[in-house]
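assembly run, all chains below
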Amino acid sequence: MVKLLEVIKKNFKILIRSKSSALIILFGPLLLILLVGTAFNTSAFYDIKVGSYSSSYNELSNSILQKLEQDQYKVLRTNSEEECVHGVKTGAYHLCIVVPADLQISDAVENTIGIYVDQSRLNLVYAVKGAILNRVGESSREISESLTTVIVEELESSKNKIKEDAGILTGLKTSNELFTSNIQRIETELAGIDLSLTSTATVEILNKTKDLKAQLAVAQITDTRTIGEIEDLTKLLKEQLDTLSGASKLISDIVPQIKENAIAESSRLVELERTANRIVSNVEAIAVKDVETLVSPIKTSVNAVTAEKTHVNYLFPTLIMMVVMFVSLLLSSLTVIREKVSRAYFRNFISPTKAALFIIATYLTNILIIIMQLAIVLAVMLFIQPELSETLLEMGVAVLVITSSFILLGMIVGYLFNSEETSTIGAVSLGTILLFFSNTIIPLEALSSSIQKIVDFNMFVVSDTILRNIIIFEVGLKESLPEIKILLIHIAVFSVIIAAIYNISSKMFNIRKYLHK
Amino acid sequence: MVMSNQIEVKNLSKSFGKHEVLKNISLEIPSKKIFGIIGPSGCGKTTLLKTMIGFWDADSGSITYETRDLKKDSKFIRQIVGFATQENCVYPKLTVRENLEYFGTLSNVPRSTLISNREKVIKFVHLEDSGDELAENLSGGMQRRLDIACALIHNPRILILDEPTEDLDPILRKDVLALIKRINQDNTTIVMTSHLLHEAEQLCDVIAILHNGRLLKCGTPEELRKSFSKEDEINLITIKRQYVKLVKMIKSRNVKKIESSGNRLTIRTADSEDTLKRILHAIRRLDDKIVQIDVRKPSLTEIFESLVKKSGEAPRGH
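ok done. output:
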């Protein structure tokens, strides 16, 4: 125990007496917290520059841009589309909106608004693109609502008109039916009229004419004029009968056709009436006639599961993880490599002291330093979010496990490399890889499923999840037991690796040194 | 000479990859003596010492300290051995006292005696005025003394020194050599390496000559000289320089070779006492006077060069 304390004391003295190390180790996290806290202590995006181009702005395009300006976006109009897009490339604008000339709502003209973004700035792109699409979408929805209102109103008025005119249709049908029955009567009547010379009435008239002529002859009335008139009357009668007969025949021919048409019309009118009724009932059957509902049938609302204050609240887990990961990796690898390349290492080795003691001392030195740094971070955190004091104990346990795993990983890096420079590069690279394959830079869901499975064991991701559960969702440590188990497995594996490579690493380093001499 | 051996190295070999650094070395290091391992740079001296302390594992052979095997009793052996390298194995960011306390604790010095040991050692190596200074602020000589002090903090029975005077100026070198003498006078066995042969010759009781990882010779300086040559060398300078006449007058069976170079006459003789008498007699007869005369045995350098020639191997890196 005395030896262990002496080695830790020595490590501390060496770190503190190296001014650059002391500065980075003690003031680094404080500076980081200060910068991040100041920069992210807001819930909005500031100074987002939006380039816009249109060869001809009109009321509609201006209203869209005004909406953006209302949201503190700085809209800068450019002279050409190329200038606008180039501005995104050079960083002059965060994104560029190209609005068609004289934007209007019509099927005949182009009304697609083009948005150009710099995909390399992934996080900003997701945030800004979402906000811009939201604003543009708002304008688009307003226009859509007014168009839909027209359609719905027209539909409603047509339905009412059809309903109103249903009586006319019924009247038409009745008239047609009456007309059909009249025709049938005419047909019947016509069938009853005999206009032939052989009909009883005609034969009787002709016979009476004959009788009259016979009576005149008997009475020896030879007045030719009277006889002639009788004959003329008979002739006229015959002619009239012929004419009537022809007309009757014509009517008889036409009436069935008219009757047929009237019957057909009647069935068409029935069909028309059914269609009108169907239209009316269909229109009435439309359940949703509210324009807002028609335009946005499904509404989404993003609700925070925690009460939002500033961005910095959400950043705490990641912030702590960044401090823990980079400081642990760098500090532990640096401590190990400094000891390994130190001239005094040989004297340590030949002293009657077990190697395990030096490993444990290195681990304890690092964890003490990082706990000190985290104390600063937590103090700032509690100042911003005092309610987190309730989770302090759980957070302490989580941080201890997380820090241990990263320190051991950093120590492995230190044992594997042979100079401070390579070790630092190794530690930074490792940290960057862990950070890159986490949700901090790109969403994990954007990765292929096979990579995602590996990334699930990423220490940064696992640790971040634990801290998010505690800090943001304020759930107990029990909720994070699977993640803690993963970290404990990491710790066990790293400890075995360190025990295996400690002597090999140091001796290999000295063999190389010997061979290079 | 009867000596009890404190360290025994038997058939020790060590390679780094294909590079064979130590080849079948056997040494017997007597107790309470200064044992020097000499040889040119790169001959394997440091590797031999580091293998002896267990920093490198030997490929073959055995090392025993006071009859205890290094592999089995490394903890005990590290407790009785102090080691100072040529690289000053101390923490530059710790003070002299902090370094001593730290390494004392690692070497299991009890807390109760650590402070008194620390002060005793500081005084012993003459660092009293620099006790609270950071090691990085000490001069080269002081750092070397601090390194030796760290090796002494646990009162080791054996002190191993790797090139203790390396990179030091003549005055500091003299200081360190005197310090080694004093340590040895306290009955501490010293094992030291040096490529400065005359230095080892002055200081060491027993010397092992190492060349290309092979042990060429081992013994006291006297034994080495005797084994190398039975002749002494007399260098003479007179006022009148009548060397032709003088040579004729001193010739005997003992005189093996006479050379004249410039104003100096060099005579190699099997009996220096007899030859000196003859020289003095001849000078009196010639009425000449001696400016300078010295009798010397062959130097370690000459012995070393001769041994290397015999071995037929050029030094590594040459």
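The mean pLDDT of chain B is 85.

DSSP finds eleven helices and 14 strands in chain B.

not gonna interpret more than that til we talk
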